[in-house]
Amino acid sequence: MADNGIGASVRRVEDDRFLTGRGTFTDDIDRPGQSHAWIVRSPHANAKIKSIDIAKAAAAEGVLAVFTGADMAADEVGSLPCGWDITNRDGSAMKTPPHPPLAVDQARHVGDQVALVIAESRALARDAAELVAIDYEPLAAVTATAAANKPGAPQVWDEIPDNLCYDSGWGDEAATDAAFKQAAHVTTLELINSRIIPNPIEPRVAIGEYDAGNGKHTLYTTSQNPHVIRLLMGPFVLGLAEHKLRVVAPDVGGGFGSKIFHYAEEAIVTWAAKKVGRPVKWTAERSEAFVSDAHGRDHVTTAELALDRGAKFLGFRVRITANMGAYLSTFSTSVPSFFCTSVLGGVYTTPAVYAQIKAVFTNTVPVDAYRGAGRAEANYQLERVVDKAARELGIDPVELRRRNLIPSSAMPYMTPMALEYDSGDFAANMDACLKAADYAGFEQRRAAAAKQGKLRGIGLSVYVEAAGLGPSHLAGKLGAHAGLYESAEVRVHPTGSVTVFTGSHSHGQGHETTFAQVVSEQLGVPLESIEIVHGDTDLIPFGMGTFGSRSIAVGGSAIMVACDKVIAKGKKIAAHMLEAEEANIAFADGVFSDSASNQTLTLGDIALSAYVPHNYPLDSLEPGLDETAFYDPPNFTYPNGCFICEVEIDEETGAVAVVSFTAVDDFGTVINPMVVAGQVHGGVTQGIGQALLENCTYDGDSGQLTTGSYMDYTLPRADDLPTFAVEHNEIPCAHNPIGAKGCGEAGATGSTAAVINAVINALAPLGIEQLDMPATPHVVWRAMQAAKAAAAE
Amino acid sequence: MYDFTYHRPATIADAAAAFKACAEAQFLSGGQTLLPIMKQRLAKPANLIDLAGIAALRGASVDGQTVVIGATTPHADVAGAAEVRSTIPALAALAECIGDPQVRNRGTIAGSIANSDPSADYPAALLGLGATVRTDRREIAADDFFTGLFETALEEGEIITAVSFPVPKKAGYAKFPNPASRYAIVGVMAVETAAGVRIAVTGARPCVFRATSFEAALGASLSSAAALPAFPADGLNQDIHASAEYRAHLVGVMTKRAIAAAT
How close, in Å, is residue B63 to chain A by CA atoms? Predict the structure, then answer.
């Protein structure tokens, strides 16, 4: 292994600039002659726009232009596309309403974009925005997921009855129904997977620029996938061909999924820059982020588990209503359907699984993928219902899981949802986690806590994800409008240093370090001689970007394949230079050697020859040492693991403290254990945030977001968290060259169930069976009051 | 934020004169409430008179059995002042649990009490400890100072100069924070003085108040063994974080914890 190669906890090379304020985030970019945009947003959840009078605003100091949806429609600006079609159970297509970048005739959620003011400064634009006179006719609004599909609910779209986007079925319904008929016991659980506001530390920013000299547009934006934005916005929204559109996503301060999607503001500034003949910059205020970044989760679920007399799982059935918000965000439709249902079998041998998913429109911010998208929701409902079954049957939850885990000997394992798990030892993860968490000693800790007036509980969650998205052919079959490969170009320079152009995007993951470690390992080049370039469509090959825990498994594999091509070409060059047989040339640690003569050449020698081809096989080989690979994975990867959480509940106040959290994960080959631990810490923190703290609520009558700032929306803070114990059980992925399974989402996917199972475990002695997230002190106290009142009757 | 004219007087007299001379004027102390509201364009004073340049308004001192905190003394200074920690540790502890480090280093005692936020911590300290608010015009007992939701006895243009706290026999503060904002959902300052017990509650009603039923039950001393009556939920605040019933319950719990913490 190279000193800083695969497996080394190298310090992140990008942190120096991040920690010293020398990063280049989109808001750090100011273009010559730049103007500033302010977007007028709807204060109403649902309202007809009767008229918009821009006269006063247009005449205000420093204003360059004021635009409305009518102006964009007049320029034939298209609808923001939804990238994944879902088919209804009856075979018909889902309903896709229009999604104009600026609303036309009707605003459909608080924060919906209604008008655009462009001025010499942000302050002047905002001043003028107050002068845009909009005559609204407020209409009744629906925000609650469970209410949207009920008869008589206010309509978000007149042409979409009952607010139903789709009603789809996944899995074998007949087999699952048959399994339930045979069951000795059925456990049913109704639960809500709470709505989340993503809150990356960097709010979204977009700068549009148009060069009239060459007819080329540039968009600087806070995106996880600049090529996807170029494709969606260019040809599909603005009618711009890709060669005349450059999308740059420089340093990006976190995304958690929310910066995957193509947002209205990106199209607005790109379009407006040409209209006003000046670059146009828009920077979201934090309060705008709350009402315009796509939210996450928001499912209402009935989950049923069928068991036989031996407590073996026979069938699992869920009925989910998923909130789409007012419009379909880019990948919104795939989250509760494909991404959630594909892993509903989980780590268990359950032979029959069926899911009915209804997606509904409401007068809320659009909902889309959030760290763990779909798989987090699946794991939560499965692991919650398994715990409930254990309580009902009087079986230890560990024992119940053990009876039903897929054994490692069964790998590769075909699930009833048509996924083939390639590898994993779920029982080993659980055993290691039980040991690390001292599960056996829990009852002593519970008793000790009780003496301090604390209710202590323990909960576990075993999980598997489908990550490393994904095989393009499978995604296409399931409705995706995109391929899911990744690209990499490995450019060896004449003196042997290396630049890697990757289609993946780093917005906190540390790719500049970990990808360089992969290259260092492969090519034997020191880390400081490797540069990782991402985030600019004019520089990097077409790639899909970063989401779904895919960067190392797919993007890293693309780099690996490109490195292999470099080595293969280098062997040919070396054979020529050494007058040796190509078959006798070996490559290791940056050195090509001829086994027959023991002569050697370094990668630098080869590169110089490739660019200065004086002694070079020009008759059979092109000059240069610059290789590109597009890697399309043959299967998903399946990160898996076990989490154990312990909580203590203050019986007097209902406050829940997470006192320990233990994670044992199988991410396959780990490139940088320190970076991976950071991903687990972050993911688990978001899971703890959802489980205990993050409380996105809408007022039912007005449709106002009642948690629209940090005064009311609770993000997890350091003092809400324990010290995490993180271990790895590395079983390499069987089908990609790097052996990595991905680690970005696992923490968020597996942790919510562990936390809530621990809370329920603590409260079960009071007779409490069910709580929804977030289990805030108030929620827990009310449950305890109700349980005590019930016990007193 | 809308445009405004910034004034930075060096004396109390200059500040008062500036206020008189300016239309739509507002005093600025630490700005931890006013500036965010201005950024949200929910307040638009035409003139902002910054009191931070008046040296006489800042600092903590002890004068016999009285602790005096200058109006523009930041929370972090109160929390860290040896004079406060050795005389009224509960006051230092309260200051230490306001907001976060940034807020504690900018926010001031006068800024807090002049705002009379229903969930701010300092009002409980003043009312519980029986403090006196000193202004450029008079002295106002804490019992008379907080008059309602964001309302105080301050007159137009009146400047708080300091707050004086009599050193109690013992005192303790317990706070159940809003998980998001970390303001008090309920905060209780329990104080024992020679004249008896004072229990001041913040967060639970539109304005800080004394829990007289608890004071009666406790009598002359803070005894953790005393049985407290159930606190009524009538008229208590309710929001997405806590119902009136929950707040009523927490008034009792936090009172017991404040008594237990009292030194």
Answer: 37
Q: CB–CB of B181 and A697 under 8 A?
A: no
Judged by CB atoms closer than 8 Å, whether chains meet at B246 and A781 is answered as: yes
- The answer to whether residues A100 and A117 belong to one domain is yes
Residues 168-197 of A with CB under 8 A from B: none
Q: How many domains does chain B have?
A: 2
CA B91 distance to own-chain centroid: 10
A778 with B242: Cβ contact below 8 A? yes
Q: Is A722 helix (H, G, I), strand (E, B) or coil?
A: coil
Of the residues A631, A666, A693, the one at which a domain ends = A631
Nearest CA in chain A to B184: A711
**B240, B249, B250 ranked by CB distance to A706: nearest:** B240
Q: Name the H helices within A311-440.
A: 340-341, 375-393, 397-404, 426-436
Q: Could you tell me the two tokens for A702?
A: 């007005």
Helical spans, DSSP H, in A136-295:
145-148, 173-182, 226-231, 264-276, 286-292
In this prediction, residue A241 has a pLDDT band, given cuts at 50, 70 and 90, of very high
Confidence of residue A469 (pLDDT cuts 50, 70, 90): confident
User: CATH number of the domain that A588 lies in?
Assistant: 3.30.365.10
Query: What's the rounded Cα separation, in Å, for the pair A11 and A614?
Result: 41
Q: Which domain holds residue B67?
A: 58-261
List, for residues A17-69, the tens digit of each pLDDT value. 999 999 999 999 999 999 999 999 999 999 999 999 999 999 999 999 999 99
- Domain holding A280, by residue range, is 31-139+201-254+259-292
Residue B7 pairs in a beta bridge with: B49
One-letter amino acid of A789: A
**pLDDT tens readout for residues A357-378:** 999 999 999 999 999 999 999 9
**Interface contact flag, B246 A778, Cβ < 8 Å:** yes
Are A697 and B253 in contact (CB < 8 Å)? no
Find the CB nearest B179 among A123, A693, A706: A693
Give DSSP secondary structure letters for A258-308: TTTSPPHHHHHHHHHHHHHTS-EEEE--HHHHHHHS-BEEEEEEEEEEEE-
The answer to ipTM > 0.90 is yes
Beta-carbon contacts of B263 under 8 Å, excluding residues fewer than 6 positions away, are: B89, B90, B170, B171, B172
A711 close contact with B: CB closer than 8 A: yes
Distance CA A36, CA A283 (A): 9
Does B240 sit within 8 Å of A712, measured CB to CB? yes
Q: Full-prediction pTM beyond 0.90?
A: yes
Specify whether the backbone of A199 is left (phi greater than 0), alpha (psi in -120 to 50) or beta.
Answer: left
Torsion of CA B104, A692, A397, A667, to 10 degrees: -80
Q: What was the pLDDT predicted at A1? A: 47
Let me know: does A232 contact A242? Beta carbons within 8 Å. no
Q: State whether B120 and B11 are in the same domain.
A: no
Contact A566, A534 (CB under 8 A): no
Percent of chain B with pLDDT over 90: 98
